[in-house]
Design a protein that fits this description.
Order of helices and strands: HHHHHHHHH
Structural class: mainly alpha
Oligomer: single chain
Number of helices: 9
Length: 209
Amino acid sequence: MQEYNNDQEQWEAIKTWWKANGMQLVAVIVLGLVISFGYQFWQQHKAQQAEKASFLYDQMLAGYANGSMKLFADLAKELEDNFSATPYAGIAALFEAKIAAEKGNSAGALQKLQWAMDHARGDSFRQIARLRAARILLAQQKPDAALSLLQKVDNKGYLPAINLVKGDIYLAQSKMADARTAYQAALQAIPADQPLHADLQMRIIQLPS
């Protein structure tokens, strides 16, 4: 450390250092404050959005329970349009797709499932949407489109379900070897004490050679 003969020399040294480095130091401090404030603001904004979305979602469910389908649809749309960054929007879209499918509106169900695949926060929601859409396409006798949809995997935790649907698609295409392979892949990941395990074993046994 440099030693100074008197306070004047020390003060002159400080002024020289500040002249050379002061603005850079101020810039670093200001940038740090901006980043810190921006992060805190963003976190607060996310919390507020999640709280609003949660309230709207509760109101949407209440509308459905009370038979007010217009209220249900309006609130679901608001969630999708203005709160797509929250998980509630994806859940709302899946819910709408389920209702549409139950009413026989396959086109409407596919539209909502596509929205979930494109916008839903959380790979689980996107994967569920992809599986349900594939089921609808298979029911519409569009096995190639259904299989194409399943080529992208959003969440590997759903691989047993994906392989199960693939097996059904291959079966519809009379591709027995591929169906057997897909069913066996699904079977290996499903615990033996689950009812689906026995069902899959039966499907494999009954497949034509």
